[in-house]
Structures are given as C-alpha cells and as structure tokens.
C-alpha cells in the first residue's frame, strides 16, 4: 500500500509505540493509543490492524526476555496457558483479515469500547489473590475456555486484550499481578505470532510504519518491565484501572 506520511507523523507513531510498550508491560491498552491514530492518518482499518501487530510482536519479545531475566516469569504451566490463546488468536485473526474493510473499522472501535467499558465498570474483574498458590489450567477447565476466547479477541483486534487476560490469569489462575503480567506478555507473543503470519500473508502490513512501531515498542517494553517489577501490587491495580478508563475514552472518540 502506498501512503505518504510525513516526518511528524512517523515521530508521533514512534512516540506512541514507546508509550504503548511501557503501559502494556504494566497493564494494557497500548493498541488503543495506536490503532485510532493509524486510521486517522488514512491507513485502512485492516492494514492498521495488521501493522500494529509488528510493534506488539517486538514489544512482547522484549517483555518476555525482561520478565524472564528478572525471574518473574512462571514457567511451570506455561504451555497449557499459551496454546489456548494461540488457537483463539488464529480464529480471531482470520475473522479480522477477511472482514470487509467497510465494516471492520466500526467493528474494531465498538469491540475496543465494549471490552474496555466492561472492565472499567466491573471492578471485580481486577481482583487478584494474595498469598495463595497458582492454580494449574488442568485443574480449572473454565480457564482454558476463557483463554481461547481471549485469544480470539486478541487475534481479532489486540487492543485492550490485557484487560481481559489479567482477570483470567490473576483471578481464575491466582497469579500475583506482576507474574500475571509476565504471563500475559507470553500469551500476547503467542497469539500475535499467529495473527501476524496471517496479516503478512494477506499483504495487510505497512512495513515502514510497522518497523517504527517495532523499534520504539521494544524500547518501551524494556522500560515497562523494569517499572512493573518495582511497583507495589496496589499501584499496578490503579494503573490498570486508569488505563481501562483511558481505553474507553479513546475507543469512544477515536
């Protein structure tokens, strides 16, 4: 796709990618900043959706390494957590990739708004357990179904996926919020890899914009991990709630 963006637009995209990388390591909602801006710049919804995944993929790689290095990434049940989101991601990405462009933009925005509002106005979804052992996916089958559904959403639109992944990981599976964030990034890496492969095969990626997002988002993710592991649990919860409210506003007026 041929689209002439000026230097200022690239700089704004890079800055948003940096911010998105930071906040996605602590809470979520980074794509709510990026997707509306890409579409405002004239990038069609399907191309914007695919291009955004390049940045998400690289920030996820950076984040996974960061959490692992800090020894905050639990690996005991990791395959059982990741594969359902990858299956869901495949389904969601196929739906998004083949959806008519004329209906995809409002559908993306409405979906972003609905998920963000659900979490913002249902505080119980943000509750996580303290001082208890995590539960294995095999011991809680409804968690596997929830992970598949979240993966479908993530494959379809990506924006605000963290807001519904964290209640599954922290609420259903009882990980503390820092480790739940680390697992969230792993899941995001898994379903984004599947989704990005589909969008690339369909020619729905603007590589110049995607590479700007990739570099800046990866840097932001490194900063975000360092910040997340230092913050208190309650502070992370407050950041998550604030970002949910921001996501509602951006999805509503984006």
Automatic annotation (TrEMBL):
UniProt cross-references to InterPro entries, sorted A to Z: TM_pro_TauE-like, TSUP
Membrane topology of this protein: Multi-pass membrane protein
Transmembrane region(s): 7-27, 81-100, 107-125, 145-170, 182-200, 206-224, 236-253
Keyword Plastid: no
UniProt keywords, alphabetically: Cell membrane, Membrane, Transmembrane, Transmembrane helix, Transport
Subcellular location per the Swiss-Prot or TrEMBL entry: Cell membrane
Family, as annotated: Belongs to the 4-toluene sulfonate uptake permease (TSUP) (TC 2.A.102) family.
Protein name: Probable membrane transporter protein
Organism: Neisseria lisongii
